[in-house]
Specification:
single chain; 340 residues; alpha/beta; Rossmann fold; Helicase, Ruva Protein, domain 3; 2 domains; 5-stranded parallel beta sheet; two-stranded antiparallel sheet; disordered C terminus
C-alpha cells in the first residue's frame, strides 16, 4: 500500500478499533478472539454464525456491538412457527380514509436493519431459513415481485446452540456457505466468570458511546479491499481451501479419509478478504501469512463436511483445518520471479 491517504486511513482504523474494543469491554468480559473475529468479518462485509451454549452473552455481544457502531439493530427469535414474511416483511392492504381507495403497502420486516441478530437460527424450518438467503447474498428482498434494497451496511449475525439438537433444523450447506465466519463462543475462565457475576449482579448498566457510523464502516470496508496481498500468499489461501476438496487432485491423506465434501470458491474469497481485514485491524498495510492462518479456522470449519469415519475417530473439522495449516507451505517463487 503506497497511497498516503490509505496509509493514514489504516492508522485511523486501528485507533477506532481500539475505541470499539474499549466500549465492548464495558459490558463484555473476555471473549477477545470472538470480538476480533466479529470485527474482522464486519469490516470485510461478511456475515457470522456464532456457535455456543446458552448463557455466553452472544446476544448481548451483538447488541453492544451494534450500539458501539451506531447501527440500527434488529433481533429475531427463530421458532418452529416463524414464517418467511415475519422476517422479510409483507404487503398489507390499506384503505385511504379520504378516498376509500384500497392499495397495497409494503410493511418492512426486521431484516431492514444494519445488524440482524438471528437468534437460534436452526430452530426454524428450512423455508424460513431460506428467506435470509437473498438478503445475505444480494442485500435485498423480493416481495410480491418488487425488490426492496436493504440498508447499508447489512450484517446477519446468527446464533446456534451446538448441544441441543432435538427439534432443530440443521442449516443447509448453501446457507452455511453464505456465512463468512463460524465463530465458536466458549466458556469464560474462572477469573472472567467471577468478573461477569459481579458485573451482572450489580445495580449498574454501563452506557455505550457510539464510535463509528454506517458511512464510515462502508468507507473502511472499501479500504480493506485495497489492502494488497502478494501472489504467493493468495495462492497459499487457495491451497488451504482447495486441499479440503476430495473430488479433485490429490488431497492430503487426512482429508481423503475423513472429508466427504470440502470448501468451495467462496471460501478462497473469504480467506483473502478476511486476511486483508485482519491486517488492517492490526494496523498493517499488507497481508501476512499469519493473517491467513488466523482466519482459516472460522472461514473453513463450517464448509468442511466430515464423514462417518471422522465421527467414529473423533476427528473434527477444526482438527482437519489445523492439519492443513501445519502441512501447507508457502511458495514464494512467484514473488521472487516477479521481483527479478
Amino acid at each position: 500500500m503506497t497511497d498516503q491517504q490509505d496509509v493514514q486511513a489504516v492508522d485511523q482504523l486501528c485507533e477506532v478499533v481500539g475505541n470499539i474494543r474499549r466500549e465492548l469491554g464495558k459490558r463484555i468480559v473476555g471473549q477477545d478472539q470472538v470480538v476480533e473475529q466479529l470485527l474482522t468479518a464486519l469490516l470485510a462485509g461478511g456475515h457470522c454464525l456464532l456457535v455456543g451454549v446458552p448463557g455466553l452473552a452472544k446476544t448481548l455481544l451483538v447488541r453492544t456491538l451494534a450500539e458501539a457502531l451506531s447501527l440500527d439493530f434488529s433481533r429475531v427469535q427463530f421458532t418452529p412457527d416463524l414464517m418467511p414474511a415475519d422476517i422479510t416483511g409483507t404487503d398489507v392492504l390499506q384503505e385511504d380514509p379520504a378516498t376509500r381507495e384500497r392499495t397495497f403497502h409494503f410493511l418492512p420486516g426486521p431484516v431492514f436493519a444494519n445488524v440482524l441478530l438471528a437468534d437460534e437460527i436452526n430452530r426454524t424450518p428450512p423455508k424460513t431459513q431460506a428467506a435470509l438467503l437473498e438478503a445475505m447474498q444480494e442485500q435485498q428482498v423480493t416481495i410480491g415481485g418488487q425488490r426492496h434494497s436493504l440498508p447499508q451496511p447489512f450484517f446477519v449475525l446468527a446464533t446456534q446452540n451446538p448441544i441441543e439438537q432435538e427439534g432443530t433444523y440443521p442449516l443447509p450447506e448453501a446457507q452455511l456457505d453464505r456465512f463468512m465466519f463460524e465463530v465458536l463462543v466458549d466458556y469464560p475462565d474462572e477469573d472472567e466468570e467471577l468478573q461477569i457475576v459481579k458485573q451482572t449482579t450489580a445495580d449498574y448498566l454501563p452506557q455505550i458511546t457510539p464510535t463509528l457510523a454506517a458511512k464510515e464502516i462502508l468507507s473502511y470496508a472499501q479500504l480493506v479491499r485495497r489492502i494488497p496481498i502478494a501472489d504467493h500468499l493468495a495462492r497459499y489461501a487457495l491451497a488451504l481451501a482447495r486441499q479440503t476438496r476430495v473430488g479433485g487432485g490429490l488431497p492430503p491423506e487426512m482429508v481423503a479419509k475423513y472429508v466427504s465434501w470440502g470448501a468451495g470458491p467462496r471460501a478462497s474469497q473469504n480467506l483473502v478478504l478476511a486476511a486483508k481485514a485482519r491486517a488492517a485491524l492490526s494496523g498493517r498495510y499488507c497481508v501476512g501469512s499469519e493473517d491467513i492462518r488466523a482466519v482459516a479456522p472460522p472461514v473453513l470449519r463450517h464448509r468442511i463436511l466430515t464423514n462417518f469415519h471422522a465421527e467414529a475417530d473423533g476427528v473434527t473439522a477444526d482438527a482437519i483445518v489445523a492439519h492443513l495449516i501445519d502441512h501447507t507451505g508457502l511458495d514464494t517463487s512467484l514473488d521472487n520471479a516477479a521481483a527479478s
